């Protein structure tokens, strides 16, 4: 169990690093969307 989850986590990280810039764009998009949601709640 442990070995497998560790391997899949590594695989997942490796896959994300392959995405590179695309992943950075997604992170930026998610961050701004979360910020907008927060702003809406707070106003």
Secondary-structure map with pairings?
Elements: H1 2-19, H2 21-42
List the helices and strands in order. Answer: HH
Radius of gyration: 16 Å
Nearest-integer average pLDDT? 74
Number of domains: 1
Distance between the termini: 46 Å
Count of beta strands: 0
Shape: elongated
Largest sheet: none
Helix content: over 70%
| Percentage of residues in DSSP E strands | under 5%
Could you say which structural class the secondary elements and strand pairing correspond to?
mainly alpha
Residue runs with pLDDT of under 50 for 5 or more positions: none
User: Helical segment tally?
Assistant: 2
What does this protein structure show overall?
With 43 residues, the chain is mainly alpha-helical. It has one domain (2-42). It is built from 2 helices and no strands. The protein has helices at residues 2-19, 21-42. The longest helix has 22 residues, at 21-42. The model has no long low-confidence stretch (mean pLDDT 74).
Q: Which features would summarize this protein structure in a list?
A:
single chain; 43 residues; mainly alpha; 93% helix; elongated
Quick structural overview:
This protein is mainly α and 43 residues long. It contains two helices and no strands.
């Amino acid at each position: 169990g442990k070995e497998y989850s560790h391997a899949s986590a590594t695989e997942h990280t490796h896959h994300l690093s392959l995405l590179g810039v695309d992943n950075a764009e997604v992170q930026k998009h998610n961050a701004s969307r979360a910020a907008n949601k927060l702003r809406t709640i707070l106003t």
